[in-house]
Amino acid sequence: MRLTLSAIVVLIIFQFSFAKFDPCRFNFGYKEGTANINEADIIAQYTWAGASITDDIINMLNKCKSSNKTPALYMYIIAKSSGLGDCNTGGGLCSQGANYIRNNKEKIKQYYRDYASAIKNTFGTTDPVICVMEPDYYQYAQPGSQSGNPLSFQEAGQFMGDLIDILKAQLPNAIVSMDISPWMEDQGTTNSYLSALPLNKIDMISTSGGIAQAGSSLIKRENRLTWQKVYDITKKCILADCGYGAGGGGTGHDAAWDNVTNINNRINEGVIGIIQFSPKQDWGNTIRSISSQLSKPICPCGNIGTKKFTLTVSAGSNGRVTKNPDATSYDSGTTVTLTAMPNPGYKFKNWGGDASGTNTTITVVMNKDKNISATFVEINAKPAFSLTINTIGSGVVEVSPKQTDFDSGTIVTLQAFTVNGSSFLGWSGALSGTATIATLIMDSDKTVTASFTGNNITIVNLVKNGDFSEGATNWNMGTYEGARASGAVSDGAYKITIEGQGSEPWHIQFSQTGIKLKQNEKYKFSFTAYAQCNTSIIANIGMSAEPYKSYCGEKTIELTTTKKTYEFEFTMTEPTTDNARVEFNSGRAACSWQIDDISVAVALQLKISDNQAIPDKLNSEIHHTYRYRNASISFYDCSGRLIGFSEGDIKETKRQNNI
């Protein structure tokens, strides 16, 4: 019995130590970088940079994802992007902030789009992120402030609603918490201001300010606003914070929020959590000791954090897809009907991504974020077939043309190359024989296996998570200079949805840093991609900081609607680095596109096996390029098809027709 009880206690502690925010109980949080408290539910951080997300926030989001915590971001985007400074530290936000908003509404909205995109690409959309909206937002509408020209309450409420809509469009499970400024009660504006806010879009109320009182019915000692009044007006749960003052400086742990009586009194007035910005290091012990003594919240917690999932549907330019009901995000369990409607001259081919099949109408159940594509082809288009290549032993196979799906009747050339002194043994599956060069006609789905002597080749991919098996981990999706795009992993690939082009390719950039390259080493860079239309992107491997020099030479990639593999080799001529960046720039892309199987690896030294057999073809012609002492010879038939290849030392060249 004693052993069983101990196991139960250990299990309870373990489960509690890795909790997320739960609005139906009291929650504890702390500011990132001040402690490491497993018992906490929330990790908070300021968005001090204003205009763009920073590495410390990216790191915090990744920490929350790996430790099963809920991130809380204090969205100081207006305040920090303005550069005006807080009034309590001598800044001009309380006098010029309203004018900044009026003159820069579209710019501020774009900042929010960029933040939402970065959060989505780093943290995902399934789990909630608490967004504490614009602390001290009331100051921009406060009567008598802003040099006599404040925002009206209605104008402030409308703009806040716009910002929330932008967040929710990309982060459907975001928990929006609206900051209140306790001094509004001293001016008699609490009811009118709070009523003008878009309360239907707001999930919670926050008392950001760093000195919320646990032992008093007053939120802040020097102001008259009470916890109860805020709850009575908004009927929203309240998230409090403490431990910082003017300019965000730490003021120490507030022990009043460790008192069970204090917390229960605040719970009865709508409070569901406290974030300590200067927690004591052993605060986890306190949390464990008091949690079981805390009351359940009285606020309507069940409406907070309801699971929502996004549905992204792409159809290209040859047709469209209708959704019923039509929305960008749906409550968990919602059934959505999709109908594919081709344009004149085209027919529906099939669904892709998170759906499959050839029926024009399908239903999907929203139990996760889903990305679905509809493919339309010309009415007289040929059917397409797939080719799968397997290798056994020390060798590789090159395919021409370089793609995985082929129109019916396409002639495909396969060439076997040996590695590390191995020999080619032969083909099996849809091919047979031992000639290193072979062709087949694509009249069905086919699988070919090439066998070599020696051990299977191990190729080390220097790109992390190049197949997106870990979601978007290690990748960054950025938009700049007004360009708009979003990205997400769907069906094992990464899709970039173009929402608004930029003026330069780098204005929409998908990238990964930390690639290790060695001077004088030869590398092979490859990836598979296609687009919803014929368009171009730029692929590059280069410096991750100024002057952003390219190591491989920027490559213009002409994408089509057919999935293809693109690859090229380069020699690293610059000094060895452990922080190269692989990037794909699509700021000028005309449509959405998708990428998978991204690889940067040391190039193999390929050789042709000695048992190569050259097909006996009449009317063939030898074309060759040469240098003194060495030449390579390619054999083509009259249709331009490669039928043979050879190389060796020579001292003179000859050209011969009609072999």
Beta-strand proportion: 35-45%
Per DSSP E runs of 2 or more residues, the count of β-strands stands at 35
- The CATH class of the largest domain turns out to be Alpha Beta
Distance between the termini: 91 Å
CATH structural architecture of the largest domain: Alpha-Beta Barrel
Number of domains: 5
Contiguous low-pLDDT stretches (5 residues minimum) are 1-18, 612-659
Radius of gyration: 31 Å
> What is the helix fraction of residues, given as a range?
10-25%
Name the assembly state: single chain
Shape designation: elongated
**CATH homologous superfamily heading of the largest domain:** Glycosidases
Q: Biggest sheet: strands, sense, closure?
A: 8 strands, parallel, barrel
Structural class: alpha/beta
Give the strand order, joined by hyphens, for the main sheet: 1-2-3-4-5-6-7-8
Task: Calculate the mean pLDDT score and round it.
Answer: 85
List the total number of helices.
Answer: 10
Q: In the CATH scheme, what's the topology name of the largest domain? A: TIM Barrel
